[in-house]
C-alpha cells in the first residue's frame, strides 16, 4: 500500500468516532430564515373541512429536546377561509382544544379514582367547517396569521370510485381471501389507496378500582373497527411497494395497468390483531381516491420512514401551499362491508 494511503487509513481509524470525510467542504450562504404560515388539511368528500394552522420553525436552530418540545401550537389571531371556485363558502371556526406535552396517570388504590397530571399545555385547536365537501369541486383554503403573509392552497376533490368486494375460498380457517373489483374513473392518472378494516366487539383494559387497577373486559353495544393488515401477491397492489413485506396496512396504486377500465385485485387478511381487542369475523374494505399531491406524500413517507438507509438521498416532502408551507390534499372514500363468512 502506498505510504499516503496507509497514513490516510490510519488517520481515518483514529478519528472514526468523529467521522472521516475527504470530500471538499462547500461554504454556501443560505437565505435568511423568515417565518411563514403552515397549512395542513385533507378535504374528504361528504365531510366538513378541518384545517390545522401553525407557524414554521427555523431549520438552522438546533432541535429542542423532546421533553421540552411543544408541537404545532395554533397561532393567536389566525383565520381560515374556505373558497370554492373563487367564492367564499364559509369561514372556518376554531375548534378549541388544549393539548399536553406529557400526561401521566396513576390509579389511587384508596379512592379507586385515576389521578392525572399534565405538563406543557398548549393550544392545539383546529379550524372546522359545517358544510360537507363536495366531490368534483375545486376548493381553496386561505389562511391568515397577523404579521405574516397569507398562505393559500387549492385542490380538486376526487369523486369516489365504484368498488365491489367478493369473498373466495381461502383454504385456511384463519384468513379471508377477498377479490376487489375497482372501476376506474373518467380520465387518466387516477390514484388509489386500499385499506382493510376488521370489526371487534369487546376489548380488555385496566379500570381503576379500590385496591388498585383491575383487568376488565369491555363489551361494546355495536362493533367498532381497527385497521388490519393484508397479504397480497397482486402486481397492481405491489407496484408502489418500496420493499417486500409479509403484509401491508395500506397500499397505493394507479390506473396505469387497469384493463378495460377495471382492475380485479386479490388480497388475504392477516389474522393478527391488537392484543387487547376481541375481533369478530366482520371485515370492511375501504378504497380511497387520492388527489395527486396527497398520493405523492404517501409515496414520499414510505421512503422516509419505511427504510433504514443511511445512504439515502435527501427527499423533499411534497407541498402545494403558496405563500407558506404545508400540504392540502383531498380524498373520496368508498367503504364496502364484508359480512362474516358462511360455508367458505
Describe this structure in words.
It is a single chain. This protein has 344 residues and is mainly β. The protein is 9% helix and 47% strand. It has three helices and 18 strands. Strands 1, 2, 3, 4, 7, 8, 9, 12, 13, 15, 17 and 18 form a twelve-stranded mixed β-sheet that branches. The protein has a four-stranded antiparallel β-sheet with strand order 10-11-16-14, with no helix packed on it. The longest helix has 15 residues, at 292-306. The chain is globular, with a radius of gyration of 25 Å.
What characteristics describe this protein?
18 strands, 344 residues, twelve-stranded mixed sheet, four-stranded antiparallel sheet, mainly beta, globular, 9% helix
Amino acid at each position: 500500500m502506498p505510504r499516503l494511503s496507509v497514513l490516510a487509513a490510519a488517520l481515518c481509524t483514529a478519528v472514526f468516532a468523529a467521522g472521516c470525510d475527504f470530500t471538499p467542504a462547500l461554504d454556501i450562504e443560505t437565505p435568511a430564515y423568515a417565518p411563514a404560515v403552515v397549512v395542513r388539511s385533507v378535504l374528504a368528500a361528504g365531510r366538513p373541512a378541518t384545517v390545522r394552522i401553525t407557524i414554521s420553525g427555523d431549520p438552522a436552530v438546533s432541535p429542542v429536546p423532546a421533553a421540552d418540545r411543544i408541537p404545532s401550537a395554533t397561532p393567536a389571531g389566525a383565520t381560515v377561509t374556505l373558497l370554492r371556485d373563487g367564492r367564499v363558502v364559509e369561514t372556518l371556526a376554531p375548534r378549541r382544544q388544549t393539548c399536553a406535552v406529557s400526561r401521566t396517570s396513576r390509579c389511587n388504590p384508596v379512592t379507586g379514582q385515576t389521578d392525572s397530571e399534565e405538563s406543557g399545555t398548549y393550544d392545539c385547536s383546529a379550524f372546522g367547517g359545517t358544510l360537507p365537501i363536495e366531490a368534483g369541486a375545486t376548493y381553496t383554503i386561505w389562511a391568515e396569521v397577523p404579521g405574516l403573509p397569507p398562505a393559500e392552497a387549492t385542490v380538486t376533490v376526487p369523486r369516489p370510485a365504484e368498488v365491489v368486494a367478493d369473498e373466495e375460498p381461502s383454504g385456511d380457517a384463519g384468513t379471508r381471501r377477498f377479490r376487489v373489483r375497482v372501476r376506474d374513473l373518467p380520465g387518466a392518472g387516477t390514484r388509489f389507496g386500499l385499506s382493510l378494516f376488521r370489526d371487534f366487539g369487546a376489548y380488555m383494559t385496566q379500570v381503576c378500582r379500590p385496591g388498585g387497577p383491575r383487568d376488565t373486559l369491555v363489551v361494546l353495544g355495536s362493533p367498532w373497527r381497527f385497521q388490519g393488515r393484508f397479504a397480497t401477491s397482486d402486481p397492481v397492489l405491489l407496484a408502489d411497494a418500496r420493499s417486500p413485506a409479509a403484509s401491508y396496512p395500506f397500499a397505493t396504486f394507479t390506473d396505469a395497468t387497469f384493463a378495460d377500465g377495471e382492475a380485479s385485485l386479490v388480497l388475504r387478511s392477516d389474522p393478527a390483531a391488537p392484543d387487547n381487542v376481541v375481533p369478530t369475523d366482520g371485515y370492511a374494505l375501504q378504497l380511497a381516491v387520492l388527489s395527486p399531491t396527497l398520493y405523492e406524500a404517501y409515496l414520499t413517507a414510505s421512503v422516509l420512514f419505511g427504510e433504514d438507509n443511511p445512504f439515502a438521498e435527501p427527499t423533499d416532502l411534497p407541498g402545494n401551499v403558496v405563500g407558506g408551507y404545508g400540504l392540502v390534499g383531498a380524498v373520496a372514500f368508498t367503504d364496502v362491508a364484508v359480512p362474516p363468512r358462511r360455508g367458505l
